[in-house]
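Example 3.
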Amino acid sequence: MTGIPLLSLLIIVPLVAGVLCLFVKAEGARWLALIGTLIDLAISIYAWVQYNPDGPQWQFVEKYPIGGGVNWALGIDGIALLLIVLTAFLMPICIGASWRSITKRVPEYMAYFLLMEALIMGSFSAQDLFLFYIFFEGGLIPMYLIIGIWGGAERIKASYKFFLYTFFGSVLMLIAMIYMVNAAGTSSIPALMAYDFSSTAQQWLFLAFLASFAVKLPMWPVHTWLPDAHVQAPTAGSVILAGVLLKLGGYGFIRFSLPMFPDGSLEFVPLMFVLSGVAVVYTSLVALVQRDMKKLIAYSSVAHMAFVTFGLFAMNRQGIEGAMLVMLGHGLVSGALFLCVGVVYDRLHTREIDRYGGLSDNMPGYALLFMIFTMASVGLPATSNFVGEFLSLVGTYQASSWAAIVATTGIILGAAYMLWLYWRICFGTQRNADAAAMPDLSLREWWLLAPIAAAVFWMGIYPESFIRPMRNDVGRLLTRLERVTPAGDSKLTLGRGAMNMDMGARH
Amino acid sequence: MIPRFTAALLPELILSVGGTILMLVAAFAGRRGSGVTSWLAVLLLLVATAALVGAPSHSGPLFDGFISADLFASFGKALMFPAAAVAIIAGHGWFESDHEHSSEYAVLIVFAAVGMSVMVSATSLVALYVGLELNSLASYVLASYRRTDERSAEAGLKYFVLGALASGILLYGISLLYGFTGTMTFKGIAAAFARGTPSLGLLFGLVFVLAGLAFKVSAVPFHMWTPDVYEGAPTPVTMFFGTAPKAAAVLLATRLCLEGLGPATEAWRQIVIFAALASIFLGAIAAYGQTNIKRLLAYSSINNVGFALIGLVAAGPRGAAAVLFYMVIYVVMTLGAFLCVMWMRDSEGRPVESIASLSGLAQTRPAFAAAFAIFMFSLAGVPPLFGFWPKLVVFQAAIASGYVALAVAGIVGAVVGAYYYLKIVKVMYMDEPAEPYARPREPIQGLLILVMALIVSPIGYLLIGVLGSLTSQAAGSLF
């Protein structure tokens, strides 16, 4: 390709900036972090422009042996590319969101954020199984420290819960990875994506990977760490958690579970649908009764992530592309919603919904942007989430009409809790004098929220820019899944029969 | 003419002769000579390490199979001698302010090192016992080195009594093995076991020998002495116990199990599986309530031995290589962690051992806290730190041998254990600062901490290739 190791640069730039942050004072660290993340954004946009959607599956490939059979192997396809761009886009916004609200131990804070960016970039671009695991797990350390040091009153408990939950899920995946490398004789992800494990092995491997990704995504019933972590984390921490870290779970399903264990995936489609269905309905209802704004949005994240699993395990083009778009859209919208909470939290230092009211009078700019993101979260046409949720539902309907019916109730409930939240905060009478006295968005806050709003509309009005890079990759995934997906008109009867016939035909 | 064994035994000869001379120096110079003896002892250990280079150090069996100079032994020595040297350097700084300090500390460690090097080379039961006792006797004295300190004296006594009991058990097992096979060499014993179903007496001997060794590696259920001795002994001595002798004992057990008891693998494997899992879980759970950092690290060492034993369960060249790999990184992490513990001093320079005193260290001493946190995360096996890799290697070996369930159980134990390592990080990073520590004036220790921290940091991954090929070569010499 170009000869420049773009992906290594994506990892190294924030890493270097992060280390440098430790040696400067607060103001210097802020600027350093901003510059570092902006450079990363520029690199990722350059990669997006350079990426050839009709080219080979893996582009920007780099490979240097570390020794002992492990390689510094990087490379991305369209799916990873989009998630990398999302990460790079959200990171400078996170730094900006922390500009004024973080006042203690600033250099450390910025260093952890940059370290996290490096690790996330690494996870999305790793092409070696163990390299992926190292990046994937490594992200726990900075997030643990960010929640634990700069979090709210219950931060210690939340940080432990976050760390141990995710760590536990991931180590089971590690054992599965070792098993795979042992059986296949390679740790290269592209090679493993084409390797056929035995049907029984696939089921176990699928479950082991599920343990990790279900916690990360998170799926019901292992989602309980998420509300705690979100509520306690500082605003930027929540943004990155909801915007990017959760996507690692969905990315894991697309990159590992589906292509590597197609038989195992098929076996567990009913389980995935049931878990997602429960998540959609249950967490939406829970969100409805929350009094804490952040907690409400956290629960809504769980519900939105269920659309991802619905779409993915529908195993058809609409479903998978929809799932990807839900991930991207949710990354933007939930991030923006957490920022909106942060805006009022910085002014009043409470997240209690009842303490606000009638903000559209004194903060019209805020009310406008908040409304855009609320509508996007609800899935209004012309916003990013509409495209994703619609496609995901179409895909789900083809796989199972019942699953689609349950999933659709999530949209209705989602509209209920989001609109009610917006109504209680921005409309109505101004019950609280201090809330009524809050100033409107500052220039810095406009700079944080407006780009996200633009991206939300872009994705909603012209989603082709985002679907184009991944179209061929989804196609390749579908070819891989073809032998397990029941053909044509039998789509409504997913089950063993079809698979066995298919298996029989192969033997 | 110089006999062949002098070249092969050069490291041991250097240490024995040098150690004896140093003892004389120490006897005449008294306290004043402590500096000179310490540095000379370090020099001896480094020269002995350098003497490992070259063909003679792995030229094969010596004295009719009494000991063997092979790559496995050389690898062990190359790991233990520098670790012992670090213990001397750290101890010299530590004891300097101590009125009772005399030069014997360094000399005792040199003698313990001779014992350890016999341990890792032993290919007969006699050599095994002689090496073990030589190391243990020096260790008993070291544990009670601060003789006016009650805790230190108690630690020494406890270590001695329980150690003697374990030696008794070991000797009993050795006598049974000898009685039923008629030979002391590992090869002969292996041949006896290979001759068919082992007799009850042989199995009894095997169990007793393993029980004695389990004491030395502090594997559950023979671990009870560890927390008390680790807490009571002076910190540099604790560091020494936790690193070089432990590595020697693990290597000794590996050689005995694979070389001497190889045909009886099915007989000892279940014992080792139990010891491994019990050590991992007990080490992880019992550490929860600890408030003393040395006790906590004692449980951490029990926990870590469990992981190394998983490599032994896997057996075969791959398992042995995994054990070696694990021990190398374990020694580095433990040295680093204890060097950090030694820097925990109150404003008057007295050592502090409570975990609470670490509160807010990240704000008062950021670099120190960062190093400590690196060792903690690394001991917990969290990537991207290098402590993750040896665990991976061990589990890889276990899964390659078909022990998937064992690997799953072990890794669940790793998560349980992660909690208390996280707790230390939490105390350092998330709590409000406590009374700050005195600033140490020990640049060499600082440098050592830096080196250890760099090795276990992600930079350490560059060593995978070198370490991987060295460990597999060393393990290959067992088969």
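The beta strands of chain A are 59-67, 70-76. The radius of gyration of chain A is 22 Å.
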